[in-house]
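Reposting from the mailing list since nobody answered there.

I have sequence plus structure tokens for a pair of proteins and want to know whether others read the tokens the same way I do. The first protein:
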Amino acid sequence: MSSSFEIEDKASKPKLVHWGFRIEEEVLDNIKKVARRSDTTVSSQTNRILKNWVTQDIYFQELGFIPMSKDIIRAWLSKIEQKDLVIQAKDFGSLANEFIIYFFGEVNEKTLIKFLDIFFSRFQAYQHSTENMTHYFSINHDICINYSVFLSELLKALIEPVIKRPIKISSMSTKIISISFNLK
């Protein structure tokens, strides 16, 4: 039984191709440092960087997303009333399907899940699991409760029109929001 698992595991790994290219010495030194800290190889670290770039970073750059300090976001959100946050979140959420179209060419349940995985990867941590046809997401944003309110409303406005049913907010705190929805 164990050998069949190993065969299946090996079959699911992506195919690696040997390719040579030139890289600036300082850049390579930095990649080596990160690889040592994360206990990975330079090759694995370089592949992770390139994969992140072609699967998400380039899109966020093209769409004009900017990195912002959590302290700035906290300060901004502390000055906005929750009712206004809800209105803004609904507006942003309904526009977010344009991002899905930009990334994948169409909006459907499959592209929605792919987009959510990319979108949530921008947070310090997130979990995505699936049981039967139910998707569970837990996003650790570590910002504030107003951000959880904003994000929950944004996600409702983004997800519900696609899946044609309500999402469930299972928990919401100053640091984490957990949602789930069924695709049956």
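The second protein, same order (residues first, tokens after):
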Amino acid sequence: IGRSTTIFAGAITLVVGIVVVAAYDQLDATLATEKAYGWLAILTGIVVLVAAIAIPSVASRHERVVDEVR
């Protein structure tokens, strides 16, 4: 998975957690959510975002040069 995909997934998870915590009273009746799930989503989103941003992406290109025999 690419870094941009991971950042996007972490951001979406964070936003969903914030929505669940902020609108708990309205969502509890319709989605049967709990504030603990919202806080877990917020924590998970933050961890994923920090990891995706902080961990360096390592890309290496190996070029092999073959000497031609004449």
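Reply #1 (J.P.):
I read it the same way you do. The first helix runs from residue 3 to 22.
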